[in-house]
Amino acid sequence: MTQHTLDASSITRGDGLVDKAYKVIRDAILSRRLAPGSRLSVPEFARQLDISRSPVREAIARIEYEGLAESTSHRGAVVVQIGLDELISIYDLREVLEGLAARLATRAADTTVIDDLEQNWQAHHDAVESGDVERHMELDAAFHGHIRDAAGNLRLSDNLRQLQGQIRIAMTTTVARRGGMDAALAEHRTLIDAIRGGDPAVAENVARDHITRLRESLHDAALADHHHIDERHET
Ligand SMILES: [Zn+2]
């Protein structure tokens, strides 16, 4: 493991060390400084962050619970590796769960929920205008996070958060293309309008269509760029 896998600058002593260690390790995974298959070493991370082992151990347990890492018998926790077939399975499941989230969110939606979604959409629109792919991915994840939270079902949230994290890991240097960003923005617009419209079944269908389109474009991109996906298996 290299010297600078973790960014220790946000770690300060005091309460909440687990939270901070969690955030630093999670950032390293999502930014791929810790690539799929990398070992999450408690003693090594404790040394890098200059904190004791116990908060690091707890942070890693949380990361495993979120599905970003998994335990192995001989190497301890490692960052999950997700191949194309598994990624497609994740999207199949996500389609159903995002549909459910949209249905429940529509029943529960008040003006605060709609306002949050509108604000997210505006920021997302600006990001797409300026071609900022990183910000697009962030705001896209936040959009679905708002709907998930509004749905008010903890089990559903946990499952969706896990799928979303695994998708981010699998999406290496991004398969996102300009056309994809515009389509996502338009579909989010339709979904906000459906939630505001108040018919849970309509919102569910719109959400499912959005994820179906993502799965199909992923499949096409993978076929067009086979190498790109293959290298995920090699660490
Ligand atoms: Zn989306």
Low-confidence stretches: 228-235
User: How many domains in all?
Assistant: 2
SS class: mainly alpha
Overall shape: it is: globular
Q: Assign a percent range to the helix content.
A: over 70%
Tell me which ligands are bound: zinc ion
- CATH architecture group name of the largest domain: Up-down Bundle
Helix/strand order, N-terminal first: HHHEEHHHHHHH
CATH superfamily of the largest domain: GntR ligand-binding domain-like
Give the mean pLDDT. Answer: 87
Tell me the distance between the termini.
Answer: 13 Å
> How do the strands line up in the largest sheet?
1-2
What value does the Rg take, in angstroms? Answer: 19 Å
Classify the fold: give the CATH topology of the largest domain. Four Helix Bundle (Hemerythrin (Met), subunit A)
Describe the model.
The structure is a single chain. This protein is mainly alpha-helical and 235 residues long. The protein folds into 2 domains: 63 residues, Winged helix-like DNA-binding domain superfamily/Winged helix DNA-binding domain (Arc Repressor Mutant, subunit A, Orthogonal Bundle), CATH 1.10.10.10; 141 residues, GntR ligand-binding domain-like (Four Helix Bundle (Hemerythrin (Met), subunit A)). The chain is built from 10 helices and 2 strands, in the order H-H-H-E-E-H-H-H-H-H-H-H. Strands 1-2 form a two-stranded antiparallel ribbon. A hairpin with a 3-residue loop joins strand 1 and strand 2. The C terminus is likely disordered. The structure holds zinc ion. This is DNA-binding GntR family transcriptional regulator. It holds the Pfam family GntR. Keywords: DNA-binding, Transcription, Transcription regulation.
